[in-house]
Amino acid sequence: MLALDSVDVDIARGRFTAVMGPSGSGKSTLMHCLAGLDTVSAGQVWLGDTEITGLKDRELTRLRRDRIGFMFQSFNLIPTLNARENITLPMDIAGHKPDEKWLDRVIDTLGLRDRLRHRPAQLSGGQQQRVACARALASRPELIFADEPTGNLDSRAGLEVLGFLREAVDSLHQTVVMVTHDPGAAAHSDLVLFLADGRIVDEMRRPTADLVLERMKRFDVIRATADDSVTGAAPAGAEPAAGED
């Protein structure tokens, strides 16, 4: 069984792209392959003019460190470090000096100026995710991957983080790819890619939450109909044929 099947996608620079689909559709696998976290059995993955499918482990590590930013459901903050130290940690490990002008812009855009000396335990969930977002942005990566970034947040904090991701694209000219199952989250993007059974089956530009939800419901109906055809089950509400029990 293929986790991804004949996927051909071009992520636009300086845009916010959301990837949606039911559980098991291949959303996270696609993100992991695009980021070089998983290897592909066939095909190619490019980041700019670099074919990452041909890189060795050490080269992939360097590429992810220097050119890609990550956000996950788990904030992955170091509890003994304050917010600023968590933000600059990847650059500190790499021995890179942060661009202070850019770092200040990121911190101010995300509203973290008065939280830089706070440790994670002193921050709300939304503030912790903002720190994680700043960490992803701090090295000015070419591409940011966000895997269900609002999954562990309440609705208010989730909207806040999505707003900051939108701001990162609009004001900081970053490129964001977000995996999500939430139509409301997808509505913050410029483009939604819909996955089903490892394939990109549709896309939507200028999405709204209602339009995305309607499209997802349509896919659910199509999938249920296909499953019924395979199993021979009658459609819901259908009367059995004459002579059947």
Could you explain the architecture of this structure?
The protein has 245 residues and is α/β, with parallel strands linked by helices. 40% of the residues lie in helices and 14% in strands. It is built from eight helices and eight strands; from the N terminus they run βαββαβαααβαβαββα. Strand 2 (46-47) and strand 3 form a beta hairpin. Helix 3 runs parallel beside helix 5 and helix 5 packs parallel to helix 6 (155-170). The radius of gyration is 21 Å and the shape is globular. One of its GO terms (cellular component) is plasma membrane. Residues 2-222 form the ABC transporter domain. InterPro entries: AAA+_ATPase, ABC_transporter-like_ATP-bd, ABC_transpr_LolD-like, MacB-like_ATP-bd, P-loop_NTPase.
